[in-house]
Amino acid sequence: GWSPDGHDAVYQLLVPLKPPHGHAFHLELGTAGEMPAQSYVRVVTECTCARDQCVEKMLCFVHQPKDPLKRIWNASVLSTLCTDSYLNVQKIAGWFQNMVSSAWKELPQSRRYSMKVLPSRRSCKLQLTNASGRSFLVEIMFGVQQGNSDIFLSSQT
Fold it and tell me: Origin, by domain of life (predicted)?
């Protein structure tokens, strides 16, 4: 795309979010009176017993809820990416921005481009600038797939 902000190009990417093992996403539509209309993504635990029979000692989050390691892992995932069991796009964006910033130093492109994470509450915006001063913007948006369709609920309003 083109940007009036002086960037040479703008790239927008959709990153599909997948629930972690033993969890599922459930789309909940907001009330009819909400403007703009809101949708929420609840993160729920799901039974994996039937799918994991071939994996020995794989515990199910639903049927083995007292396992302390699972409780700690489940609480960590939910507190990092969710608010009250719902995906929180601001938490996801912050987590993703931190991960990209940490990983950037290890990539070969970091020697040719400087990267700046731009403020954003609902996506991850990166400004990449080469030695000659030319820059481009990458906006990474997050999405949750609706069933098996090609439709994604996006993190953008």
Answer: Eukaryota
Question: CA-CA distances (angstroms) from residue 131 to 64, 114, 146?
Answer: 55, 8, 42
User: Half-sphere exposure of 106 toward its Cβ, with a 13 Å CA cutoff?
Assistant: 5
- Residue carrying structure tokens 């979010």: 17
| Model confidence pLDDT, tens digit, residues 59-96 | 566 666 555 555 555 567 678 888 888 999 999 999 99
pTM for the predicted model, two decimal places: 0.75
Q: Write the pLDDT tens digit of every residue in 97-126.
A: 999 999 998 989 888 999 999 988 889 999
Rounded-to-integer distance, Cα 78 and Cα 99, Å:
17
DSSP 55: S
Domain annotation for the chain: domains and CATH numbers: 10-154 (3.30.460)
Query: Quick one: DSSP state of residue 110?
Result: G
Q: For the sheet with 86-87, list strands across it.
A: 23-29, 39-45, 86-87, 82-83
Rg (CA), the chain: 19
CA dist list (Å): 61 to 3, 26, 68, 83: 46, 17, 11, 19
Straight-line distance from the first to the last Cα atom of the chain, in angstroms, rounded to the nearest whole number: 19
